[in-house]
Amino acid sequence: MNDIQLKRTTRIGFSDSYVDGEIKKCEYNTDFYDIIIDGNSLYSTFENYDYISVLGQINEDLQKNEIKKLLLESPSELRAGQYFIFVCPMCADLGCGAITVSIKREEEYIIWADFRSENHETSQSLNMGPYKFLWKDYLRIISSADL
């Protein structure tokens, strides 16, 4: 069984990152919730991509929509079973790239597997997971990101 937590974090703007052969820039400081699994920060794990998690959006409607997706109450706009978890801090568009994960519920458990780096043209496995969380704990933690 894995442990999932959220931690309020700020991505400091004006940083350049070299990702997939391109320099990526974001000029704004951006607050969001880092996703911590078994004490390990996913934001730190994915730092070379310069993405932020989908949790902690400044727009309340967008935030509620992302929470519903992670709780499997709303469908993802991606292929079946894949959900955004980290996105571009400027636009959150798949064209800039994103980290996605397969999310499935099995009785009292939720399973995150098949972590991928994706954009409109490519999808590459990140060889992480799977992670298995107790549904009641997952529900409480993900719901706590509501603004």
Written description of the protein model:
By secondary structure, the protein is α+β, with helices and mostly antiparallel strands. 16% of the residues lie in helices and 42% in strands. The chain contains three helices and eleven strands, in the order E-E-E-E-E-H-E-H-E-E-E-E-E-H. Strands 6, 7, 8, 9, 10 and 11 form a six-stranded antiparallel sheet that branches. It has a three-stranded antiparallel sheet with strand order 1-4-5. A hairpin with a 2-residue loop joins strand 4 (30-37) and strand 5 (40-41). The radius of gyration is 14 Å and the shape is globular.
Structural class based on helices, strands and sheet pairing: alpha+beta
Task: Determine the oligomeric state from the structure.
Answer: single chain
Provide the helix percentage. Answer: 10-25%
Q: Which residues sit in consecutive blocks of at least 5 with pLDDT less than 50?
A: none
Strand runs, count: 11
Q: In percent terms, what proportion of residues is strand?
A: 35-45%
The backbone outline, from C-alpha atoms, is: globular
| Number of continuous helical runs | 3
Major β-sheet annotation: 6 strands, antiparallel
Elements, N to C (H/E): EEEEEHEHEEEEEH
Gyration radius, in Å? 14 Å
| First-to-last CA distance | 28 Å
User: What is the mean pLDDT?
Assistant: 88
